[in-house]
Amino acid sequence: MSEVYAARRTRLRERCNAGGSAAALVSRPANVRYLAGAAPHGAVLLLGRTEDLLVCSGPPDDRPTQGRPDEALPVRTLPGPGGDPAVTATGLAADQGAESLATEDHHLTVVRHRAMCSVAPALRLTDLGQAVEQLRVVKDEEEISCLRIGAEIADQALGELLESILVGRTERHLALELERRLVDHGADGPAFPTSVGTGPNSGRRGHRPTDRRVEEGDFLSVCLGATYRGYRCEIGRTFVIGTSPADWQIELYDLVFSAQRAGREALAPGAACRDVDRAARQALDSAGYAENLPALTGHGVGLEIDEDPQLAPAAMGKLDACVPVTVEPGVHLPGRGGVRIDDTLVVRPEADGGPELLTITTKELLAL
Amino acid sequence: MSEVYAARRTRLRERCNAGGSAAALVSRPANVRYLAGAAPHGAVLLLGRTEDLLVCSGPPDDRPTQGRPDEALPVRTLPGPGGDPAVTATGLAADQGAESLATEDHHLTVVRHRAMCSVAPALRLTDLGQAVEQLRVVKDEEEISCLRIGAEIADQALGELLESILVGRTERHLALELERRLVDHGADGPAFPTSVGTGPNSGRRGHRPTDRRVEEGDFLSVCLGATYRGYRCEIGRTFVIGTSPADWQIELYDLVFSAQRAGREALAPGAACRDVDRAARQALDSAGYAENLPALTGHGVGLEIDEDPQLAPAAMGKLDACVPVTVEPGVHLPGRGGVRIDDTLVVRPEADGGPELLTITTKELLAL
């Protein structure tokens, strides 16, 4: 694995040098993990002029779920509590003779940035921008394999829940049980707070579970994901409770299902992100639900659950092969509930069979 | 409750005006909740020259566990996605005729701060510092009552776990079960990730649960807390598994217990924070464990689990009445394990009976 991290750092260094900076300081935890193999709490990565260093505030956490630091990367640990690794790393960059240092200004606070300026007044701090986030968009097969295993775990946890009695249980209990099952099946933990919505809460994106109990006739929507070796996937499904769904439930479900399928089918290398969004949104728009739609219909996933690209009406850019994204249109009708269907897929060229579906739980409307 | 929030905002406004700023922008979520009753995702609070406003990025979350926004406070919601409430609020401050705006530079990123500067170039941005955090240190009886209920919930969850079979279960399962019980008993959720450490992992501060199973003869240390109406408490206990603790276990336990008692007994209005730390640390130091001790032996709790004051060797300042703190010395011996004992208490004057213990689970060494 060491070569993988070294190659990623080389790519970042080339971008920095092209931007006029001999050195860079990476502080955002997911970016540190991407480039160094692990992101111990508070650690920063210095891409120095003469040497790269992982600067940590304390001894590294040795749990495997936190990643293993690249063994080829020297580690510097602050001597006592209270210090800021970013400030220490800035001093080290200056000691290495760097004249400018590119920093993650979308992550550093104003106070930290000021302390970094003070420790090395001759060093010019520039903005690295989202350079590492951009490198992270296209995944290698090792990363995709982690996402695939995470998706299998999420499918298993969801499948087991569906075999149990649901009526009378609260959203909060169902969510906790799903999270326990994720861990049982080998996840590092949930990829994000599990969402369970019943009745009027169903179909709301990011709904946080309440004490409402599942009732006959409800829509039940569930959104969960596993973290596996740091990689986070997402699956969302909507079910009906009881033997006979109402007509409006069947109609709404079919509509969202066809929208989600259109979104999935639009995934291809070279497709504009906004066109994928439009594909998923169109049927819902023309059925009169324009007001009830989420701001985005999908997003990238990886070391964070919400990464680039965004699938949204104003999104710029095109998809590449090996980019994992969610496709998750939904409609929520205030007071009544709604439907969301959410898959994680990897963009693949037509020649390789088209988009690879990672979350394989059925999307038929199940009556439970 | 509205008067409580208004009074808190008045106190902050007085501090800002004394510091030369007519307006302030509060962005740190716990600070927004303290002053506005709730902190919807991304929301900021503007203390304006002529009007206070809660600026939100979307419709407020109406779950009671997220707090209720002060009804006397006008709410401004951004029209579409992608905007930054902090930038909008900065523009509103300028519109209200403010010449300077105090901001939370320890929370704002460099990029957000730059965007705020750009939207109102004539407005001078100054650093509010930790003014709101300082207001939050001394709690009112309503806040203490939330902490007290949270501590009861944590005591209940822990008590139930102790009645179950422990040998053979993993740290991760025990932690998940504790978190489920917290929610069962009415917590909003865990106050922080529940820590369960067995055998060589026992006694490590902030240990994250692994797949290690509880074995006969182990120390088992558990640290958990409930969030209740936003307020977070903490309890930690160490047990031995099996009928007869080894001599070294009894000795180490007695030592940490006496250190923790010394810390608790040192809590009084006017006591220096470093003296409380020293009281808890002294016995452990002189027993030769100076190298095995954590950087702090306690800290404030409230809307966040780790607040001011810090009980540490270099801590400045003194305790006041009605300040809730943890007292949590511990010793961890690499490869063998250790002991931590952790209570949440409220500093009270001698005349009121001295420190009020919120977490009442026994601190006798239980053999389970």
TrEMBL record, chains A, B:
<dbReference type="InterPro" id="IPR036005">
    <property type="entry name" value="Creatinase/aminopeptidase-like"/>
</dbReference>
<protein>
    <submittedName>
        <fullName>Aminopeptidase P family protein</fullName>
    </submittedName>
</protein>
<dbReference type="InterPro" id="IPR000994">
    <property type="entry name" value="Pept_M24"/>
</dbReference>
<dbReference type="Pfam" id="PF00557">
    <property type="entry name" value="Peptidase_M24"/>
</dbReference>
<feature type="region of interest" description="Disordered">
    <location>
        <begin position="187"/>
        <end position="211"/>
    </location>
</feature>
<dbReference type="Pfam" id="PF01321">
    <property type="entry name" value="Creatinase_N"/>
</dbReference>
<keyword id="KW-0031">Aminopeptidase</keyword>
<dbReference type="GO" id="GO:0004177">
    <property type="term" value="F:aminopeptidase activity"/>
</dbReference>
<dbReference type="InterPro" id="IPR029149">
    <property type="entry name" value="Creatin/AminoP/Spt16_N"/>
</dbReference>
<dbReference type="InterPro" id="IPR000587">
    <property type="entry name" value="Creatinase_N"/>
</dbReference>
<dbReference type="InterPro" id="IPR050659">
    <property type="entry name" value="Peptidase_M24B"/>
</dbReference>
<feature type="domain" description="Peptidase M24">
    <location>
        <begin position="146"/>
        <end position="348"/>
    </location>
</feature>
<keyword id="KW-0378">Hydrolase</keyword>
<keyword id="KW-0645">Protease</keyword>
<feature type="domain" description="Creatinase N-terminal">
    <location>
        <begin position="8"/>
        <end position="138"/>
    </location>
</feature>
